[in-house]
Amino acid sequence: MTSLPGGSDHGGSATEPHPLVCARCGTPADGPPPVTWTCSVESGVRQFFCEACSRDNLRAIEGRLDSSWW
Question: pTM to 2 decimals?
Answer without folding.
Answer: 0.65
